[in-house]
Design goal:
The protein is mainly alpha-helical. The chain contains eight helices and no strands. The protein is elongated, with a radius of gyration of 16 Å.
Length: 143
């Protein structure tokens, strides 16, 4: 509620306190939320290394959004060296659980030949999977 400002004034520092209480008890969504706040510097100092630590805790419990976030960090070289192959591995884990953004990101890696050989047909396959879930960029990139 503090993170969204629902019923209380929006306060990311307060949200972080509550997320940490749950995250330290192993709650994977809260672990992902802690990672997200560190990755964008809301309520805490901007810290990609700490973000990665928390994303990994959630991802290792099978949390698709955390797996996607780790893929983004590897793709962009945030808190880790840029590594498109690692990004692909994490995107695939999230995509296997139906994560639309991960499916689109896989299509983008194939389209641009990053971490994989460039393959427009495989890119289209993944863009269509994302588009079928209503992903706007997936729908645009299938033309």
């Amino acid at each position: 509620m503090h993170g969204n400002g629902e019923g209380v004034p929006q306060d990311y520092s307060q949200a972080m306190e509550w997320y940490l209480k749950a995250a330290n008890q192993g709650h994977f969504k809260a672990q992902n939320d802690v990672g997200t706040l560190y990755s964008i510097g809301l309520g805490v100092p901007y810290d990609h290394s700490r973000a990665m630590e928390w994303f990994l805790k959630a991802a290792n419990q099978g949390h698709a959004a955390a797996q996607y976030n780790i893929g983004i960090m590897h793709r962009n070289g945030q808190g880790v060296p840029q590594d498109y192959s690692q990004a692909m591995e994490w995107f695939l884990k999230a995509a296997d659980q139906g994560h639309a953004n991960a499916r689109y990101s896989i299509g983008s890696l194939y389209y641009n030949g990053r971490g994989v050989p460039q393959d427009y047909s495989r890119a289209l396959e993944w863009f269509l999977k994302a588009a079928d879930q209503g992903h706007a960029n997936g729908q645009i990139d299938t033309d």
